[in-house]
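Good morning C.,

I know you're traveling, so I'll keep this short. The sequence:
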Amino acid sequence: MPYAIKANGFFRSVDADMELDVDETLFDVFPDWLVVMMDSQIADSENLLRESEWKIKELSDISRQLEAIEESESGESPPDLLPGTRKQWLRYRGQVSNWKEGAQSFPDIAQRPVRPS
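The tokens, ready to paste straight into the viewer:
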């Protein structure tokens, strides 16, 4: 089945009766470069989803740590209290909130903000 493909990767199947748009090229088979482009887009989407899920969980954990710090300040020592001061957790919350598309090194896991220690 032939395909009409644009340089941006948009494609459609065509038959002999169909005309190509000005910016389309006819291919008899699906080209390898388009498969690579689509695989890359899928990987990018998966990375964005992974980081979005991490961010949601991390913001929830940060919220709990700020609550745990308040509890410890009132004399109760919660078992889930992690190291770090209130100021460090607030700074970390800002870094996590800004960890999104457009941020430097996003979505590289190795460059994620680091929890207070």
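Safe travels,
E.
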